[in-house]
């Protein structure tokens, strides 16, 4: 119980939630495309092979750019930018997919989604490694999002398909995925804390102005007294 309370009150909670949402959305969007496969083929004139290539690009861009993202993460000044940009790309790519008019556009938009997933995953994993006391436990908890997304998102996709069609369903799912953006903004980085501490140190004066004026007046008074004593002696 104490360990559970520590997780809820620690800096690691937003990071765990962000990885959880990324994992559930990643596997969920693949299952959703599978549910909408027949409607997409009729609407865009694509084949199962074309959709397979598009989903392959989604997974490829979710993993291949990882070394580049990890190298960029070493620059403290752009860590938050990388994370927030990744969360925006993930949901924006799905929203654009709902407006695709050809297989090429769908492949490009899903690749954008995959790049966003890669940026979120790498930034959150490396941040969790720095801030978490029990990295193995928290990371394993966050990965349960894959199971939740595989089970829950197809149910939502099927319900939305009957009411709004595949385009409306993808658009609404992208809006649900956009909830990862405020979670990413809530994550605190080491660079944020160091800048706050630096500002606190700079805002504290070395000594109050009143003290400086009083000290100078005392010094001048003591010098005048010494000069009078020397003249009388």
Describe this structure in words.
The protein folds into 2 domains: 2-188, MFS general substrate transporter like domains (Growth Hormone, Chain: A, Up-down Bundle); 194-232. Helices cover 83% and strands 0% of the residues. It contains 12 helices and no strands. It has helices spanning 2-8, 12-35, 37-44, 48-61, 66-73, 79-97, 103-131, 135-142, 145-177, 180-185, 190-203, 209-232. α5 (66-73) packs across α7 (103-131).
What layout of secondary structure does this protein have?
Elements: H1 2-8, H2 12-35, H3 37-44, H4 48-61, H5 66-73, H6 79-97, H7 103-131, H8 135-142, H9 145-177, H10 180-185, H11 190-203, H12 209-232
Helix pairs in contact: 2-7, 2-8, 2-9, 4-7, 5-7, 6-7, 6-9
The tally of helices reads 12
User: What proportion strand?
Assistant: under 5%
Based on secondary structure, the structural category is: mainly alpha
Mean pLDDT: 83
Quantity of strands, as a count: 0
Proportion of residues in helical segments: over 70%
Unreliable residue stretches = 194-201
The arrangement of helices and strands along the chain is HHHHHHHHHHHH
CATH top level of the largest domain is Mainly Alpha
Q: How many separate structural domains?
A: 2
Q: What Rg is obtained from the alpha carbons, in whole angstroms?
A: 28 Å
What's the CATH H-level homologous superfamily of the largest domain? MFS general substrate transporter like domains
Domain Major facilitator superfamily (MFS) profile: 1-233
InterPro entries: MFS, MFS_dom, MFS_trans_sf, Proton-linked_MCT
Membrane topology: Multi-pass membrane protein
Transmembrane segments: 12-33, 53-73, 80-100, 106-128, 135-157, 169-189
